Each structure stands twice: as C-alpha cells, then as structure tokens.
Description:
The protein is mainly beta and 645 residues long. The protein has two helices and 26 strands.
Amino acid sequence: MRTFRSAFLVAALASTLVSAGVARGQAIPFDLEVGYRFLDVIGSEESYRSQINEREGFLVRGVHLGTDGKTDGFPILDHLRIDGSDLGAGPAGSLSVDAGLTGAYRLRLSYRHLDQFSALAGFANPLGALIGQQTWDRTRNMVDVNLELLPGAVVTPLLGYTSNALTGPGYTTAFVGQDEFRLAQDLTVHDQEVRVGAAFHAGAFSGEFLEGWRRDHEIEKDSLAPGAGAGNNTGTVLGNNLNLSSLTRSSVTDVNTPTSSFFLRGFATDAVQLMAFYVRANASGDSTDQENLNGSLVSFPLARFFTGLADSSSSRVENTMWRLGGRVEWHVLDGIDVTGGFVRRHATWDGQDLVSSLFTGTSNFTGFTLADIQTILNAQTSVDRIEDVYDVQVAAKGFGPFGIRAGYSRIQQDLTVTEDPSEILVPGGQGGNFTRDINRVEGALTYGSGPFFAAAEASWDDANQAVLRTDYLTRNRERVRATWKGLPWLTLGATGLWVDQKNDTLGINSKGSSRQYTGDVTLTPVKPLRLHGAYSKLQADNSIPIRAPQDFTVLNSLDTEDGQMWEAGLGLKLDKIAIDGFWSRFANEGSYAYRLYRGGARVDFDATAHVGLIGEWSVDRYLDYQISTSNFRANRYGVYLKWRP
C-alpha cells in the first residue's frame, strides 16, 4: 500500500508541475506512462517471486519531465529533470530528481525501492518440505540527496545524506543441543550517512574534500517457528528425542563510521595530468545478544543433557581502513598515451567477544541429576592487512586501422593474523604473517576498417602463493569480439570469452574454467521492420576439495554448468502503431539442470499527438529438473495510458 501511494504521488506531482508550466504558457517536456498490470501464476508462486517478483497492481511504468531555461512559473530554478520507472507494483522502482539554478545551487535526489523475496526449495532440507528453511520477504528503501552550493565557483560547498532501510520477516535455522531448529525472524536494518565538504577549482587544479558520519543500526528478533520444536533430527541421540518447547533470541548491533576523503587533480603541463586521493574510514561496532530456550537437549562438550539455556554475548569490533594513491597521465604524442599509478590499501580488524552460557536442568548420560553449569568464553582476534598496487599502461592509436594497448601491474599483499580464522591455510599453524604477490600482464589489439571492427584483449595473472583457500596461483582471461556492418540492412556480431584459474597447492588443488560464446544478427529488410536474433553458449567447470563434516573424509566439490540461450526479437513501426516482440530460451544441462522460457509483446498506439494506449503481454515458464514443485508458468498483462501534454 505504501508503494502504491508513492507511485500515485509521483504521478500527481509531475502532472501538477506540468499543469503549472502550461498555465503560464511554458512548454515543459513531459512523458507519463501509467496503468495496471494483471498477473496469473500456475505452479510455484514462491519460485516465481524468488526469480522475477513482478506482481499485480497499479504501476507508473515511466515518468520523465525535463526543462532547461528560466521560466516565469518557476523563478527559483532553470533546470529540472524528473525520471522514474516501475513505481508501484514493480519489484525495483526508482525515481531521480535533478534541479538547480545556474550559479546558485544544484540538487540531486534519488530514490530506489526493492522487494527482496526468496523462498526456494532447499536441497539440504532434512524435513523434505517443498520450501527450504532459509527464506525472507523484505523491503529495501534507499534515498540519496546531494546539494551543491555555488556550482562552478572557486569553492563549492557540498552537502549530502543517504538512507538505506531494510525491513521484513523471514525464517532461519539455529543449531543448539545437537539438533537444528527452524526460527521465525524479524529483521530491521537502517544505515544512514551525513556528508559535508567542499569542491574547489583554481586554475589548473581542482579537487574535493568530504567528511562523513555513518551509522548502522540493526535489530534482529528470532523465535521458535510454529511446529518446529521437534527439530530436524528425526532420530534419537543417546536414546533421547531432542526437542525445544520455546526459544527467543534478540540481537542489537550498532556501528559508527566516520569517513574522510580527498581528491586532487591538476595539470603539470598541457600534456601531463596528475591525480591523487586519500580515503579513510574508522568503524567501531558493538553487538549484544540474548537467548533463552527450554527443551530436552544434549551437549557433547559438557557430556550432559540439559533442559534450559540462557546465553548472552557482547562483542566489540574496531575496523580502520584507508587507501592512498596517485596517478600520472602523459600525452606523449598524438595517439600515444602513457598512464601509471600507485595505490596503498591498509585495513586493520581488532575484535573481542565475551560469551556467557548457563546450562540448567543438567544430568549425565546415565540420567543422574547434576548441578547447573556456566561457561564463559572470552576471545580476541586481530588482522592487519596492507596491499600495494603498482600499474603502468601504454596505449597507441596511431598505426592506421590498428590500436594497441599494453600494461603491467603488481599487487603486493601483507597479512598479519593473530588467533586462527579458519580461512587461512598455513602448514603447521593458523596465525602469523603472510605475504602474497600477484603480477598481471595485459594487452589489447583493435582493428577497424570500413564495415569491419575486431578487438582482442587478454590478461595473465601469476601469484607466488595462496593465503586463502579461494585464492588462485594463476588466472588467465582472454576476450575477442567482432562486428560487421557491410550491408545497410544487415549487422553481424560475435564474442568469445575464456577464463581459467588454478591453485595446485598441496591440499587445495582447486581449478576452474569458463567459456562463453555469443553470436547475434540484426536484419532491417524494410525500414519499418527490425529483426534480431542471438545465440549464446556458456560452459563452466569448477572443483575444490572439501571435508565432509559427518565423517571428515575428503571429497571433491564439483560444479559444472553447460547452458545455451536462443533469443529472437521483432520491431515494427507503422504510422500510429509500434509493435515489439521477443522470445528467449535458456537451458542449463550442468550440475543444476533447468530451462527458462521468456516471451512477450508490446503494442503502442498513438491515439492523438498527446495521448496513447499501450498493451503488454509477457510470459515466463520455468522447468526445474531436480525439484519439479519449483516449476511455474506466469502470464502478465498490462494496460497503460501514455500522456505527452
């Protein structure tokens, strides 16, 4: 309902502005497309909403308003632009406003609304339910405001504000007492930032300074989901059935982050440009958690059964990040440019967590009643990371139809870890100091002559060692693309992409590769008609050893993708009618086999020079070959009014 009101107010506001301008004899360019969308889903509505989520309801499909030049109706501005799309029933609506008065101010405002839904079938769901146990239905609203005073002056004051709010229910799981239980979840997250600064422009030099204050506030409340007291383990542990009769949990997190940024650009000569920047953020976060539960549970570390648990924890994290860099751009000769730069990134994490757990109603494995027991854990971890990046690049365009680019970069990483984050793999221990160097060589070649254009680019990465399990030792990327427009009614295009990476460190032996090929053709046999077709193929193979948690055996985790997509499109423009249609088919035969068909048509009729009607139809059909209950077919129909005063 709130989204509907927002969409309606946007349409009404834009119409009012246009009417005011027209009343004063000012022609303000304006387009409004508004109407209603109908939806019919056959099959899994949860799967449809998780993938597409375009719902039925009132929809401002598009609104555009723009004017330049001072008017009698609006003396405080000479520039105004409003752009909006998918406001109302759309899952991802947006609105932007750009207004100003030359030499006085410029105001830019943007708004985005996202509906985030996920309720897919779960592969690791031990209860065999149609929907997995990790689901959410949340709404995200983002607002960003930036104000420039005296734009174009030697000094321009800058003000800004950003708000990012996420709210909504969901479901999650918790492991406690040797069993896993489903929990109902309510999450509220609000992230805000205020910025103050100034931009300056003096002769050959310009720059910008901003100081910001960011605050993130998060509240999560969990409770035992109805009917979930038996847990996921349907068997017994030491002859006892594990269960929960109640569970409540609350978590509050606050993070404050002051930030500073500085950017400077200047010309040493007409051919040499210098740039420098500095960014720093110092985040401090506090989190408190409270949990209370009752039931019949077991703790192997304590060698006890227990009937109640009161758990509390408090943690504090300090995270300081900064990066400093500079860059030189040198225009050597006509068509030849050299660029180079250096960036240092530094980050430190220092955290402490205090956990107190009180186990009540304890008894040993023979059933003998024991006293309550309390455990206290006090853990502290710190990480210090420095990364230096050097790069240089030469680009030359003065060789007839050929263009050449070549570059080299080096990344030096230095990581110091205390305690043992589980991602670090070092023989004989987890903590310590780790260094990693990555060298990259890259190049590109272009050729353009007449109707033909081709480009090839490649990069080769080589690292001396891996620090994280997911790090690579070698990675290569090559890409080729070509287009041909030899006939006025025919355009051909093709691309190829190859990516390979590998880490053959003993005990890791991970490797991955992907191949993507695309070809497309566009035909315009007669002026009103446009035809388009395309074919794409994607192949990916990735493997990495993992350890099975149930018996600690090592096995390979494999992921294979083999997908093909066919696309076709049609456009027809007559006197007052425009028709557009599309169809696509994507089939994946890899580790997760499925097919997705999408199609639709749009008819745009201009009844008059100012009013038009639009009819739309689209269909999505999803076939899941692992979980047939996820299949769906969704038809959407839209009727819209188009107004151009």
